[in-house]
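In the design runs reported in the main text, the only information available to the sequence generator was the tokenized backbone. The following block is the verbatim input for one such run; it is reproduced so that readers can re-run the procedure and compare outputs position by position.
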């Protein structure tokens, strides 16, 4: 407030100040005469100059009064502060209420606008209805006179109804209607049968013809069914006859083309233990042996189960690329064509003829062609993997048809499984009988590495286990146990041909190790059989280690077994210095050489690096344990200290063992 008052004084008095210090220091009197001359007529200036000191006191008094007034105003404002805050809040609340009222009014405005649109629409509809009413009244006026002219009088109507000439007229009309019906039936049936005949033309796409042409005339077939059952039966018979012949021929041609793509895998002499064939394969080399084993190994053949919904083979393309396929590929292509054709035909017959039984008459021929081919093929098939794949394919096709909700091939697919399972079991029994009946002497190979027949068996077993897990129903479980027993019997007969127990155990050990490796690739489904071979492997490994140590450290092993117990406390037979001296000295002379020879033999004879390492570790651990028992025995024998210079330290033996372990 003081600052405002000072600015007012400054405006009145031209910037004069009453502070003496300021006047004495800052104000310059230059040009004062000129300014006085310019303002000599101002009453205020004249009064100030006249009164002088009195005006200065008055200004000081005014300034003091202004300060008091300012303080009083501040106190009044503080007293009214709560009222001002309340007023501010009330104004804010009023703003909110006014904003809500504005939004509500805006909504009313929009609603009123929509009502205006509806009113305009109603007005337009009212005008349209008025036009329609006017048109109808005009039409009524013109038709009334015409109706009056054509209406028969009641007397005429009674004469027509009661008169005898009506019966004669009805007889004449009935004859004409009957001739018309027969003519219509004849023309409709001839036209539809003509369309059926065009289906036999080469290159005709029957499905396109059915969908684009015949479906348009299904009401004609319904007319025949309701008004001329004889013609309807003729049409149905014509369709069944032509489609049966067309489809039968198509499937026969397709089968003949597929036969040229067939890759022959198994014949009657290709069972696992057939003597002459397997013996002939031994000198032929690795490639021929792999081709022979193709019928025992699933390999990439399992991919057919992942391609179950893929299009079938196109023979001309495959022939151009010189491709051959296992029979399960051909079987899947044939089944795929049959499913697609049957699905399309079933849907068409159901919609066009409304008689599902016609489908089975149409497909009597095609199914007979396929059945004949299947029986001939199965009779000459000795590939158990192929037969099991065909069973899996058929089960997957049953699922496909179930998902399509079409029962048309249920009987055929069930019959296919009835054909396949007995043939598979027959071929499977041939495999087992061939193992029992084969000449082990002829098939035996003088070597301890895994026998190729055992490898075939394990690959065959792993393949069946995978397929059984994919789509089996438990029928294979007992058969696989029978096959395992047959191969166990063959392995025993092979092992008996070896001259020593060590070679016998090594042969069985290598074959079990190979079996485990193959079964691991079959996954968790083969864990039970894999556990069986692991136990057999462990048993033969322990026996082989015993025989191996007995060969290279026989005197040590015999002495320990005969004289020293496991606990190193008691003696089986009480030894003396004369008994133990040759054992200690002989070991000290030859132990390094014997270790090297044992290492070289195991590395050479074991077919699996990991298995060989396990054998060496077990053998050297057993050797170290037995020699430690011998050393403790020497310490407890009276006079045994004389042999201390001949004892090899455990540290030296351990170092040598670690050296061979690092070379593995």
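Verbatim output:
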């Amino acid at each position: 407030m003081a600052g405002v008052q000072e600015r007012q004084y400054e405006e009145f008095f031209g910037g004069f100040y009453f502070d003496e210090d300021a006047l004495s220091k800052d104000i310059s009197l230059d040009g004062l005469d000129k300014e006085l001359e310019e303002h000599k007529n101002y009453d205020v200036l004249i009064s100030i100059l006249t009164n002088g000191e009195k005006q200065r006191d008055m200004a000081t008094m005014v300034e003091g009064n202004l300060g008091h007034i300012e303080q009083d105003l501040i106190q009044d404002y503080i007293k009214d502060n709560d009222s001002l805050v309340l007023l501010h809040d009330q104004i804010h609340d009023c703003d909110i209420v006014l904003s809500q009222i504005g939004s509500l009014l805006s909504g009313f405005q929009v609603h009123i606008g929509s009502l205006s649109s509806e009113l305009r629409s109603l007005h337009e509809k009212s005008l349209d209805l008025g036009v329609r009413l006017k048109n109808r009244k005009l039409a009524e006026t013109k038709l009334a006179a015409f109706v009056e002219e054509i209406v028969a009088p009641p007397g005429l109507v009674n004469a027509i109804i009661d008169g005898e000439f009506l019966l004669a007229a009805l007889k004449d009309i009935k004859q004409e209607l009957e001739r018309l019906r027969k003519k219509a039936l004849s023309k409709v049936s001839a036209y539809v049968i003509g369309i059926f005949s065009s289906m036999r033309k080469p290159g005709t796409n029957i499905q396109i013809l059915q969908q684009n042409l015949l479906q348009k005339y299904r009401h004609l077939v319904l007319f025949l069914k309701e008004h001329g059952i004889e013609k309807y039966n003729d049409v149905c018979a014509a369709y069944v006859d032509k489609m049966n012949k067309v489809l039968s021929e198509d499937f026969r041609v397709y089968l003949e083309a597929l036969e040229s793509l067939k890759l022959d895998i198994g014949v009657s002499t290709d069972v696992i233990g057939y003597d002459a064939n397997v013996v002939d394969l031994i000198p032929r080399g690795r490639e021929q042996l792999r081709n022979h084993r193709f019928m025992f190994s699933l390999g990439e053949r399992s991919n057919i189960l992942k391609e179950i919904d893929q299009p079938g083979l196109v023979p001309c393309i495959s022939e151009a690329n010189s491709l051959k396929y296992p029979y399960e590929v051909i079987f899947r292509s044939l089944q795929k064509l049959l499913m697609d054709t049957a699905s399309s035909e079933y849907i068409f017959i159901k919609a066009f003829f409304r008689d599902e039984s016609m489908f089975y008459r149409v497909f009597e021929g095609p199914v007979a062609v396929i059945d004949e081919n299947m029986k001939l093929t199965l009779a000459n098939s000795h590939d158990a993997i192929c037969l099991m794949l065909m069973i899996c394919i058929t089960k997957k096709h049953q699922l496909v048809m179930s998902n399509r909700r079409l029962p048309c091939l249920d009987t055929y697919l069930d019959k296919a499984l009835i054909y396949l399972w007995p043939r598979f079991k027959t071929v499977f029994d041939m495999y087992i009988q061939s193992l029992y009946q084969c000449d082990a002497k002829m098939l035996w190979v003088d070597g301890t590495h895994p026998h190729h027949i055992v490898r075939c068996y394990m690959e065959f077993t792993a393949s069946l286990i995978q397929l059984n897990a994919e789509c089996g129903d438990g029928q294979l479980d007992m058969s696989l146990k029978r096959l395992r027993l047959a191969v166990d019997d063959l392995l025993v007969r092979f092992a008996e041909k070896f001259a020593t127990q060590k070679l016998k155990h090594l042969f069985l050990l290598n074959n079990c190790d190979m079996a485990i490796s193959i079964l691991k690739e079959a996954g968790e489904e083969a864990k039970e059989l894999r556990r069986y071979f692991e136990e057999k492997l462990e048993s033969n490994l322990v026996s082989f280690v015993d025989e191996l140590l007995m060969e290279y450290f026989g005197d040590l092993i015999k002495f320990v077994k005969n004289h020293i117990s496991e606990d190193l406390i008691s003696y089986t037979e009480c030894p003396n210095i004369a008994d133990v001296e040759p054992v200690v000295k002989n070991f000290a002379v030859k132990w390094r050489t014997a270790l090297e020879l044992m290492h070289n033999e195991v590395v050479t004879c074991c077919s699996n690096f990991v298995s060989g390492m396990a054998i060496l570790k077990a053998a050297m651990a057993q050797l170290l344990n037995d020699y430690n028992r011998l050393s403790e025995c020497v310490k407890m024998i009276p006079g045994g200290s004389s042999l201390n210079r001949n004892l090899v330290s455990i540290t030296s033996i351990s170092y040598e063992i670690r050296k061979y372990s690092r070379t593995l």
